[in-house]
Amino acid sequence: METNRTLGRSGIQVSALGFGCWAIGGEWQDASGRPLGWGTVDDSESVRAIHRALDLGVTFFDTADTYGAGHSERVLGRALGERRDDVVIATKWGNVFDERTRTLTGSDDSPPYARRALTASLQRLGTDHIDLYQLHLSEADPRRGAELRDLCEEFVREGLVRAYAWSTDDPERARVFAEGEHCAAVQHALNVLQDAPEMIALCEELGLAAINRSPLAMGLLTGKHTSGRVLAAGDIRNSPPTWLPGFRENAGADQDWVTRVDSLRDILTSGGRTLGQGALAWLWARSPRTVPVPGFRSVEQAEQNAAAMAKGPLTAAQLSEIDQVLGRR
User: Fold this and answer.
1) I need a surface site. Which of 12, 19, 46, 85 has the fewest CB within 10 A?
2) So where are the chain's domains?
3) pLDDT, mean of each 10-residue run, the chain (329 residues)
4) Taking the model in full, what pTM does it have?
5) Is there a contact between 309 and 284 (Cβ–Cβ < 8 Å)?
């Protein structure tokens, strides 16, 4: 398959696979103490995993200021160091957090906060510009979205940002940002269990990249999660918010989701792929606009995910077969 894809209308080239940096932020919480991270992490292992990803051709890293309450950006900046210019960095803003206590404290969609957040992200990442700056408030008012889009154009003119996007699952909100000249993408949920045909159609219509969060369904598509397997106390999947499907409170994976994953196993593991590699292959076959950003916490996970690129996308026939198995056509 092609090793690179283009971030929409920006012309920025990225590896066909990006790496999502939520998990390497480590443990953090909301104001009520519920976990928002993926459990404890080893920062040195995270740095090694990023270096390994670079060696394997991964050039796109997607983080957010709020992941680990700033910690993910700091770890990514530390790992990239002098190789900053070899990669494309995407980060996000809109959430307010206390870095000292690693606590999410609220949100702020005001233009003045956006500028303060950008300044802080640049400092944590150790860079003078962000390649793709993304609004992290999926349900923000579209009118405010238009203001923030225009502000992002100012950031581009100032050389602080190369392109921007909205992280949202609503096509109409994505369309608001797309009216800006330097809007390059929309980040939205997409995986073989959760198709998003309206969003894919929008990206193809407007020339946007579709950056796919949850490409492995929060780990369900790796096949490692079973019903009843309780996760660590600091793992968001052990105490899932309403927007995180597929897991149950203190009960592991939802059995219905596990059954659906099992029904796809033979198709996804074709061509010597692991289950997770097959799930990434489905995304590449779904549209030439897609750029999946699976998470990682170890060198082994980095190697497994990066190896998917060499195996390429699924075939059109396999996509059709998957739709039939899942009752989508």
Assistant:
1) 85
2) 4-223+276-325
3) 88 98 97 94 98 98 98 98 97 98 98 98 98 98 98 98 98 98 98 98 98 95 79 81 82 86 97 98 98 97 97 97 93
4) 0.97
5) no
